[in-house]
């Protein structure tokens, strides 16, 4: 059985790690490279870095951050934010990233998913999907959740898989930062309907929430930020708890 992955997420704004609630009210959480190094040493399976201002401000993701992280960590890491071309991805992978995450650019230009998968392999391509419930339907949002679309979460996820994405990072905007648990019903539906790994994001508040998202949400990986950044949960303790509950993890 494949082990379940625990992934700290570092949202980057102006070179610092930040964390908010429902995608707003950001507060500083430290230096991203220092945090990455600590996570790599204390049991994280992977890391995700999202330059949350890159798309909004039309900037490219900072390649120098990737270089600095690659020098310090020995676990796989994904970089996202403002990536909109094959050239962007080529540069980031050459700087040391293992995967890239695309979101708004994939919706605006779905062919980009095909192009990246063809050139770099599906294992390098993570499509991030931010969605919230509107009138009972999960609708996709762009630009850090600021722009609504008419896209249905499940329809878009299926298209993303068909186009060659290797993984989906699903963030529930309704759950993000609330610490009330992950959107397990939606996660379970994604996991059932798709064949590629689903990373759960948005809502982690305690260790039980991780157990629930692996058991009820059928997630392949669970991503969290503030509970790790502010040491509310230590990854080594979380993994011991998960193992005791029969969930396969790498200790």
From TrEMBL:
SUPFAM superfamilies: Ribulose-phoshate binding barrel
Subcellular location: Cytoplasm
InterPro entries for the chain: Aldolase_TIM, His_biosynth, HisF, IGPS_HisA/HisF, RibuloseP-bd_barrel
GO biological process: L-histidine biosynthetic process
Molecular function GO terms recorded: imidazoleglycerol-phosphate synthase activity; lyase activity
Keyword Cell membrane: no
E.C. number: 4.3.2.10
Pfam family, one: His_biosynth
Main location: cytoplasm
Class of enzymatic activity (EC top level): lyase
Active site, per annotation: 11, 130
GO cellular component: cytoplasm
Pathway(s) annotated for this protein in UniProt: Amino-acid biosynthesis; L-histidine biosynthesis; L-histidine from 5-phospho-alpha-D-ribose 1-diphosphate: step 5/9
Reaction(s) this enzyme catalyzes, per UniProt: 5-[(5-phospho-1-deoxy-D-ribulos-1-ylimino)methylamino]-1-(5-phospho-beta-D-ribosyl)imidazole-4-carboxamide + L-glutamine = D-erythro-1-(imidazol-4-yl)glycerol 3-phosphate + 5-amino-1-(5-phospho-beta-D-ribosyl)imidazole-4-carboxamide + L-glutamate + H(+)
Record key words, sorted: Amino-acid biosynthesis, Cytoplasm, Histidine biosynthesis, Lyase
Functional summary from the UniProt entry: IGPS catalyzes the conversion of PRFAR and glutamine to IGP, AICAR and glutamate. The HisF subunit catalyzes the cyclization activity that produces IGP and AICAR from PRFAR using the ammonia provided by the HisH subunit.
NCBIfam families: hisF
Entry similarity comment: Belongs to the HisA/HisF family.
Subunit structure and binding partners: Heterodimer of HisH and HisF.
PANTHER family: IMIDAZOLE GLYCEROL PHOSPHATE SYNTHASE HISHF (PTHR21235:SF2), IMIDAZOLE GLYCEROL PHOSPHATE SYNTHASE SUBUNIT HISF/H IGP SYNTHASE SUBUNIT HISF/H (PTHR21235)
Protein name: Imidazole glycerol phosphate synthase subunit HisF
Species, as recorded: Spongiivirga citrea
């Amino acid at each position: 059985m494949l082990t379940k992955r625990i992934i700290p997420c570092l949202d980057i704004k102006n070179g610092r790690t930040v964390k908010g609630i429902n995608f707003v009210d950001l507060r500083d959480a430290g230096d991203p490279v220092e945090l990455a190094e600590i996570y790599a040493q204390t049991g994280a399976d992977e890391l995700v870095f999202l330059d949350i201002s890159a798309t909004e401000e039309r900037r490219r993701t900072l390649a120098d951050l990737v270089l600095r992280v690659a020098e310090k960590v020995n676990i796989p890491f994904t970089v996202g934010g403002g990536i909109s071309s094959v050239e962007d991805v080529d540069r980031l992978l050459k700087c040391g990233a293992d995967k890239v995450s695309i979101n708004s650019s994939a919706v605006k230009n779905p062919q980009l998913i095909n192009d990246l998968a063809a050139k770099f392999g599906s294992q390098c391509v993570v499509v991030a999907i931010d969605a919230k419930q509107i009138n009972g339907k999960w609708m996709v949002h762009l630009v850090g959740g600021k722009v609504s679309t008419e896209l249905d979460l499940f329809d878009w996820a299926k298209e993303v898989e068909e186009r060659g994405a290797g993984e989906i990072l699903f963030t529930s905007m309704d759950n993000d930062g609330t610490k009330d648990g992950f959107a397990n019903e939606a996660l379970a539906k994604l996991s059932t309907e798709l064949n590629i790994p689903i990373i759960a994001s948005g809502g982690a508040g305690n260790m039980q929430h991780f157990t629930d998202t692996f058991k009820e949400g059928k997630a392949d990986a669970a991503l969290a930020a503030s509970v790790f950044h502010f040491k509310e949960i230590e990854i080594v303790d979380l993994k011991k708890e998960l193992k005791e509950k029969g969930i396969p993890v790498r200790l």
